Structure formats: structure tokens, C-alpha cells
Amino acid sequence: MGASGDSVRDLLAANLRRARQERGLSLSELSRRSRIGKATLHQLEAGAGNPTIETVFSLSRALEVPISDLLDRQEPSGPTVVRAADVEVLRGEGVDLRPLRGIESGGAFFEVYDQQVRAGSRQDSLGHVGTEHTIVQAGRLGVRVDGRDVELGPGDYVGFDARLPHAYTALEGTVRSVLLLQYRSDQRLHAAPAEPPHLLETP
């Protein structure tokens, strides 16, 4: 995800337009669902906007798609190496995210991020699709999920339903962590349509 080549704004522009059209949503309806102004959405689809973490997560929530469906491009199969220097950082009010890789396995899809919560900062999320997994590497991280607080140190893990309101706070220095977002494969925009149910024959 997010390797050199296309910028975040270019990828978001193409994928947002495609996602909105596949969901059959007008700009006005997407604006209502995401709480993002129609003019801002128009700019984002034109590749002229300046997307933040908050914007992308709001769109993910409104469109009910994984983050990577908005930020990724089709990648060739086979081994993939992602260099930190080649990855464009997605910035939020308190967090810097580097999207590293999307992994599909056994009916699940995972997005892997290098996540840094800036010292003294807090990042709030109203919630989005998927299950969120965070493993702290350095620093102390405060995590609030639906009003419940936990504190994590290096090596600690937390997982929760990402649809719940949640927040990350750097309690000690800049917090380095690995963020995994987990989805069902059928939540992705490119997922093959499900087979129609077989009708039971009545005797």
C-alpha cells in the first residue's frame, strides 16, 4: 500500500469516485453520511484536496469499506518489500500513519500500518468498519474504546471492534506501534459477488 508512484491524494481521488459510484451514492448523500462538505468531497475526487486521517476514516465509515480500498492500488502478486522512505505519511490531529501492506488470507483482509502517536497528542475516531489491533513498540499509549480506558506499554496489545468510538493518546513520548485493521474479504469493494442462494424445491 502507498508505495512510491501515485500520491495519497491521487489514489484517494480515483478510489473515492469508484467507491461512491459502486455504492450508488451522490456527492450530497456521501456528504451527509460522512459529515464532510460537498465542496471538499468534490475537491478530493478531483485530486485537489488535502486528505487527513480524519477525512479518510470518515469516508471509510460512510462508505463501509476498508481504508485500503480508498488509498491502495492494485499490486502485483509475489514478494513485496516496502521501504519506510517510500511511503507517504497520512497525518491526523495526533497520529502519523504509514500504510505498509494489505494482506488477504482465509476470508479476512488485513491492512498493516506503522503508527506513531505524537508526544502529548490524542487522536479521536468516531469509528469505522473492521476490527482494530494495536501492538505498542515504544512509549506508553492510552487507549479509550467506547468510554473504557486502558494503558499499554512496549509489547502490549489491544484489539477491539473498530465501529466503536475510540481514541489513542501518547502518555509518554512519541508512541511507536503496529496497527492492523482486519476486515472480512466480502467488505472490500472488489470482492466477488456472493453466489445467489439456492432455492429449496418443494416436493
Q: Could you give a short description of this structure?
A:
By secondary structure, the protein is of the alpha+beta class. It contains five helices and eight strands. 23% of the residues lie in helices and 35% in strands.
Q: How does this model look, in words?
A:
- Strand 1 (90-91) and strand 2 form a beta hairpin.
- The chain has helices at residues 8-22, 27-34, 38-45, 53-63, 68-71, and strands at residues 90-91, 95-105, 108-117, 122-125, 131-145, 148-152, 157-161, 166-184.
- It is globular and about 45 Å long.
- The chain is 23% helix and 35% strand.
- The chain folds into 2 domains: 8-71, lambda repressor-like DNA-binding domains (434 Repressor (Amino-terminal Domain), Orthogonal Bundle), CATH 1.10.260; 86-187, Jelly Rolls (Sandwich).
- The protein is α+β, with helices and mostly antiparallel strands and 203 residues long.
- The chain has 5 helices and 8 strands.
According to DSSP, the number of beta strands is: 8
The major beta sheet can be summarized as: 8 strands, antiparallel
Low-pLDDT residue intervals, each spanning 5 or more residues? 1-5, 192-203
| Secondary-structure element pattern, one letter each | HHHHHEEEEEEEE
Helical fraction? 10-25%
Number of domains: 2
The CATH class of the largest domain is identified as Mainly Beta
CATH fold-level assignment of the largest domain: Jelly Rolls
CATH architecture name of the largest domain = Sandwich
Mean pLDDT: 84
The helix tally amounts to 5
Tell me the strand percentage band: 25-35%
**N- to C-terminal distance:** 53 Å
Structural class: alpha+beta
Shape, principal axes of CA atoms: globular
Q: Cα-atom Rg, whole angstroms?
A: 18 Å
Output the CATH homologous superfamily of the largest domain.
Answer: Jelly Rolls
